[in-house]
Amino acid sequence: MEPPVRVRSREGEEVTCSRKAARSAGTLSHMMENSADGGSCPVDVPAAVLRVILDACNHDDGGFSLMASHSLEELVAVMTGANFLDAPGAFSAAARQLNTRFLAGKSVEELRTNLGAENDLSEAEQASALAEPAFTPPPRQEQAEQSTAGRGVSLLAAEDVLEAALGEADAAALCRLKAVSVAWRTRARRELCNRLCRREGQPEPADFASITDLDVE
């Protein structure tokens, strides 16, 4: 039987996991390959979050069922930690829980409440966002002017983590997200446009003129 892997959390607490779990996290797998003395692997992830991720890495479903009772804030923390550890299974499981329980089937107002987002769009802007084609790309100016102050979930994770999480959202939820706030409109537009219009090796469309194909499947 292979010896367990020791991982040292942000607080300095040592957490052990199976080698199967460690191999499911690219960062830990790389550390194992480059560690000659078998010492603990230091990671910038809180101990409580680290335990969830390592436990999830032992399950074929990435720990989806294990996270069924996690709060939105806890799921975002797991995604942030999984992103750092390069643990795609755990990240996807947390993102699917977030989208299934907090985004799918929710109204614009419910989404705004769940995400703790600021209502910084006028009624006309909200109506326009809901009426626009699903594949509308975010203008470069909008991306540059996207709110940096943020609130709610926007304060809990880096932009790349939030955008990756939307990869698990259904198109209907993404369309409603566009009316939640400026920041979420940009994220939803980018995800929808990339999903429907972007082709491998091609830059992200910046306007309708740069869209050459639509994936309608």
Task: Explain this structure.
Belongs to the SKP1 family. InterPro entries: SKP1-like, SKP1-like_dim_sf, SKP1/BTB/POZ_sf. The structure is a single chain. By secondary structure, the protein is mostly helical. The protein folds into two domains: 5-103, 2-Layer Sandwich (Potassium Channel Kv1.1, Chain A), CATH 3.30.710; 118-210, no CATH class. Helix content is 48%, strand content 5%. It has eleven helices and three strands. The chain has helices at residues 19-23, 26-33, 47-56, 72-85, 88-103, 108-115, 123-131, 140-145, 159-165, 171-177, 182-196, and strands at residues 5-8, 14-17, 41-42. A three-stranded mixed β-sheet has the order 2-1-3. Helix 4 (72-85) runs antiparallel to helix 5 (88-103) and helix 10 packs antiparallel against helix 11 (182-196). The longest helix is centred in the middle third of the chain and has 16 residues, at 88-103. The chain is elongated, with a radius of gyration of 19 Å. It starts with a strand and ends in a 21-residue tail after the last helix. Mean pLDDT is 87; it is low at 211-217.
What is this structure, in a nutshell?
The chain has 217 residues and is mainly alpha-helical. 48% of the residues lie in helices and 5% in strands.
